[in-house]
Each structure stands twice: as structure tokens, then as C-alpha cells.
């Protein structure tokens, strides 16, 4: 996922003059694992988050110059935070089963098709 954001600074008291202070271009990466597990005839899907990281970041000042030291600090801070966050997220578990069929579904289908079939035209 790529994200662009812009940091604007108000240079006046009345809030009418905004100046571009920084431009941010970031790319996020999320990696995970999906496993189907069968226990006692029941299948479950387990979705586990493995890692998340700020893969790339570009920070440009108001003149368009790249801010390398700011990029490294922001990227390192986010990646440490994401590492701790991913470790605390439990695996999502979803059952893999067919949804129940409504009781009167066959009766409903036949009642819808009855006028078409009785007309002799067919389907």
C-alpha cells in the first residue's frame, strides 16, 4: 500500500496562509500466513500476521530536497513499533463449513418455476 501525505504549516495568526512544510511518500508491506487446519472432521482457517513494515519512505522539505536523516529515524521508529504490534495480534480463526440451507428453499424454487414449466415454453 502506498500513501502520500502533506504537512502544512500556518504562518499567520488568522489561519489564512498555509505553507507546505514536508511531503511524505511511504510504502507499507504486510506479510502473513494462511493455514487450513482440520481437527476432528472440522476445518478451520487460521490467518496469522507475520510482519508489517514501512518498506520505503521519502520525506521532502518545502524546496523538494530529500531529508535522509528524517527518513531513517521515521522508518526505524515505525518498524520497531510495527514489530511489537504484530507480535501482540492473535491469529484469526474462521470455520470452513457450508452455510445451512434454508428449510423451504426447494419449495420456493419449485413455486417460482411452476408457472414457467406449466406454460409449455420451458426454461
Average pLDDT confidence is 81
Strand content range = over 45%
Total beta-strand segments: 4
Unreliable spans are: none
Tally of separate helices: 2
Following the backbone from N to C, one meets helices and strands in this order, namely EEEHEH
- Helix vs. strand class: alpha+beta
**Helical residues, percent:** 25-40%
How far apart are the first and last residues' alpha carbons, in Å? 47 Å
Task: Report the principal-axis shape.
Answer: elongated
If strands are numbered along the chain, what order do they take across the biggest sheet?
1-2-3-4
Strand count, sense and barrel status of the largest sheet are: 4 strands, antiparallel
The total number of structural domains is 1
CA-based gyration radius: 28 Å
Written description of the protein model:
This protein is an alpha+beta fold and 123 residues long. It has one domain. The chain contains two helices and four strands. The chain has helices spanning 68-88, 105-118; strands spanning 2-10, 18-39, 42-61, 92-96. It has a four-stranded antiparallel β-sheet, with helices on one face. A hairpin with a 2-residue loop joins strand 2 (18-39) and strand 3 (42-61). The model has no long low-confidence stretch (mean pLDDT 81).
Amino acid at each position: 500500500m502506498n500513501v502520500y501525505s502533506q504537512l502544512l504549516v500556518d504562518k499567520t495568526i488568522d489561519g489564512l496562509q498555509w505553507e507546505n512544510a514536508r511531503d511524505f511518500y511511504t510504502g507499507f508491506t504486510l506479510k502473513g500466513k494462511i493455514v487450513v487446519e482440520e481437527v476432528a472432521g472440522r476445518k478451520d482457517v487460521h490467518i496469522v500476521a507475520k510482519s508489517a513494515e514501512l518498506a520505503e519512505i521519502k520525506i521532502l522539505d518545502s524546496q523538494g530536497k530529500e531529508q535522509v536523516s528524517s527518513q531513517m529515524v521515521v522508518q526505524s521508529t515505525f518498524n520497531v513499533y510495527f514489530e511489537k504490534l504484530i507480535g501482540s495480534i492473535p491469529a484469526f480463526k474462521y470455520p470452513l463449513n457450508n452455510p445451512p440451507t434454508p428449510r423451504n428453499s426447494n419449495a420456493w424454487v419449485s413455486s417460482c418455476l411452476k408457472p414457467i414449466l406449466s406454460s409449455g415454453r420451458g426454461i
